[in-house]
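Dataset card, provenance and construction

Sequences and ligand SMILES were collected as paired inputs. For each pair, a complete structure of the chain with the small molecule in place was predicted and serialized as structure tokens. The example below shows a pair involving flavin-adenine dinucleotide. Curators did not alter the output after generation; any descriptive sentences attached to a record were derived from the structure itself.
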Amino acid sequence: MKRIAIVGAGIGGLTAAIALARQNVECVVFERHATLPDDATGIEISPNAAAELHALGVAFEDDAVRPHGREIRRWRDNSTLARTDLSRYAAPYYTVRRGALIAALKSASPVRFGRRCVAIRNDPAGVVLGFDDGTITRADAVVGADGLHSAVRGVFSRELPRYSGFVASHTVMPMDAARPLAAPDRVLTWLGPKRHCLAYPIDGGRRLTLVVVEPQATPTAQNPPRDSLTNFLGWHPAVRGLLGLAGRLHRRALYDRPPLQHWQHHRAVLIGDAAHPMLPFLAQGAAQAIEDAATLARCLTAPDPFARYEELRRPRLARIAEATRAALRTFHFPDGEDQRRRDRAMAASPPDALDWLYAHRPG
Ligand SMILES: Cc1cc2nc3c(=O)[nH]c(=O)nc-3n(C[C@H](O)[C@H](O)[C@H](O)COP(=O)(O)OP(=O)(O)OC[C@H]3O[C@@H](n4cnc5c(N)ncnc54)[C@H](O)[C@@H]3O)c2cc1C
């Protein structure tokens, strides 16, 4: 394969462009938007993904924070239920502004903006991609990195994303205001009945990202801007204080999809959310898109590269899907026996409990 078209300039598509270019493949990324927004919210980049970005020479550390640990805390009294020492991993755990990471990835990739892919067909010489401006392009293969509502996925399946029953609301605030309530050197997650909340530093520690995940009957329900505070009655003042500082939260309905039977077909292959969208309970969606991209590039010399990529990635994604389902069930227990059992299990979890996730190096 000499020329590969990548649809979607998200974290997955841009990482794939860098990784494939290193294998001497000519790559062009097609992005529907006219430009990439400077997204001010944060993202956690765990060591499994950071190791891949380092290997690809992606430089985004200037703006990023390297938290010492992740802590899970109890909603009512702020007590620590579990702690992960992040210094145990060979690569750092980063928290970073999404816009800064995207800018670092984009600086290394050719992107054609304003090109929404609407059609893909195989022809004897490769694939033909059609765009909504009426243009077409040919390539030897196409990588679908076009996210949850992937058009490339339409080659594989017609089913639609399914609403999870949860929304994530997020905001960013100055660390100076949040400092007495949050921890500028840690990722904090508070678990409580029906909902959880997390907070972590970004922008060199100058700002804090706050995320609330809670149930909502329909994806589009509009609640008053400060409803989260009334939903957090009885929560510890640290959480209520952060929510009070937050003002208006930006809501986003959370979706996933049932697993696809295959992520590759002829000359098309899916990565990231296009292949396996997941709820953000483990903060792994982007990390797995990065692992996908790096693995795909390493498979190019295999006799059937896309099939080899899928074979390598399937078990890993199945385990992450299972862990995400478990978190969906256990994160939001009301106080009671289930919650106490969960808390005891968390307290007893060994230091290497997350090594399978964070210390993993893909094939
Ligand atoms: C609240 C929340 C918090 C999260 N936190 C984390 C975290 O801390 N760590 C983590 O690893 N993950 C996290 N995730 C998950 C992560 O954001 C996603 O998994 C990740 O962004 C997926 O990357 P992607 O490149 O596959 O898709 P996307 O980021 O969705 O990118 C797809 C790109 O394709 C473009 N596109 C779409 N359709 C077309 C088309 N037809 N033609 C051309 N271009 C198209 C889009 O405009 C976009 O630029 C979180 C998710 C949520 C909702």
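Derived descriptions for this record:
Residues 7-13, 30-33, 43-44, 116-117, 145-148, 151, 168, 170, 211, 252, 254, 272-274, 280, 283-287, 289 surround flavin-adenine dinucleotide (CB under 6 Å).
The two ends are 20 Å apart (CA to CA).
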